[in-house]
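Re: duplicated header lines in exported structure tokens

Our pipeline writes sequence and tokens for each protein into one text file. With two proteins the header for the second block appears twice in some exports. Here is an export where it did not happen, for reference. First protein block:
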Amino acid sequence: MIVFLLKRLGGTLVVMLAVTAIAFVMFNYLGDPVVAILGQDASESARRAVEQQLGLDRPITVRFLSYLADVLRGDFGLSYRLGQPVMDVIVDRLPATIELAFSGMGIALLIGVPCGVYSAIQRNSAGTRVLLGASLVGISVPTFFVGVVLIWVFSVTLGVLPSFGRGQTVDLGWWTTGFLTPSGLAALVLPATSIAVFQIAMIMRLVRAEMLEVIRSDYVQFARARGLPESRIYFRHALKNTLIPVITIIALQLGSLIAFAVITESVFQWPGLGLLFLQSVAAADVTIMSAYLILIAGLFVVINLAVDLLYFAIDPRLRARAGR
């Protein structure tokens, strides 16, 4: 176990170092930070003063090591657009994105897993054909289109749900949540449903495919030959082994929801990281863009490491191979 963990941590460090190098290149060579701070009409003396303050007059190696040290301390500099520390801006926006991503994935799991199990057990029924057709639509329709349709139906036509913003929030220390207010919950419904549509379709099809494969396996046939009840075969033996490969996809998709909810947050003007990144790109705010790149890479690295460790804990074959 220790050797397995050390190997994964070593790969993690290499990936994060490479991503930090890319972010450093972006930070230093994507646009002109001096122009972003002072504007086009700044004097040469003012430019030199800002360059010296930012350390742009130092050798590239020294600047990279300094940047790396700052990143390790959680210091990503100041936002050119907002004039605030980048980490403070990200921490302020992070709760909104986390709540949106977990809400959307929660909806997807509550609907997708049961539908996948049902469509595998009742694979020739009319209900399964309806579910497969609906899942094909869910996978094919773009997320922004789903969001626009939801706004048109529930906000414009029916007027029962808000179409933008996060509603009223409650401060719990550094975390702000909308789960504790009616307007916050109402504002969450449409964007969470919008990002859940694709996830429901994907999870349902994945669970169905894995479940069908497990049902045809020898140990399930042996359990059926022993006379075990069908419900026990499906939900105790088959489903347990079906969900092992599904864990990886769900974890990566959750990371994708956190990292790439740009379109959904833009459509619903949800004040999260995705909208922040889109605004930073429009304003060429390189400090936030580079910090976003590092944090998202770190998120996926942590998720992959957690999935690897979970696999190691669940699958005895990996433990046996590591022991050899």
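Second protein block, exported in the same file:
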Amino acid sequence: MRRTRLFLATGAALILLFSSGCSEKLSRQTGLTDAVLLARGQKQAERKKYGNASEAFQLLLERFPTSPLAPRAQFGLASSRMANKEEIEAEVAFDDFLRLYPADPRIPDALFLKATLLSRQVLPPGRDQGKTLEAIKAYKLFLEREPDSPRSREASGKLRELRNRLALHEATVVNHFLSRKLYGSAEARARRAVAAYADVAASPTLLSLLGEALEKQGKRDEAETIRKTLAEKYPEHGGKKR
């Protein structure tokens, strides 16, 4: 019984040692061609072993940077890192692909995936909107490349959603100015936001805030004009004083 247990324990240890050492052995192997590394990376990605897939793609790029298969490896590296939730590394890999292979037919795919990756990282209104702006830029570039497709409709929807998020962010900032009685700053910020985001769902909120900022400064005629605009364009909003 003891021998059997010892044998099983030894066997398990060897299996663990072998599996943990596989990734290290890949980088040590010297006869791997670019085609073999690409195939290995693709196979690992199909099996959802994205870490192993990334390693194979990365090794191909390091050993064969001028290979005709390098663009496919770079795209595979970016996609695998994205699937593995390595957000920063994936973004860098997509940027490298877009920079190094601008004529590659997978450019629209890379732009769409990068935009999707960035949109997952956006922060709530009131916090830094850098990722929101980057995602918007990526979606716009994608739509320039692929204006008519099922993905284009999805991208357009995401674009509207992200722009509305920016409008809500502006509303948060304006509210902050109002709460601190910085009415001039609130008016200026609201005017810019109303002009920039007239076509999003949060537009009536921005108009209402602009009307409030004007009212607080005694600009009643201008405030009344804003309320009329609200009542005409957005009757469900009411156009009433806040």
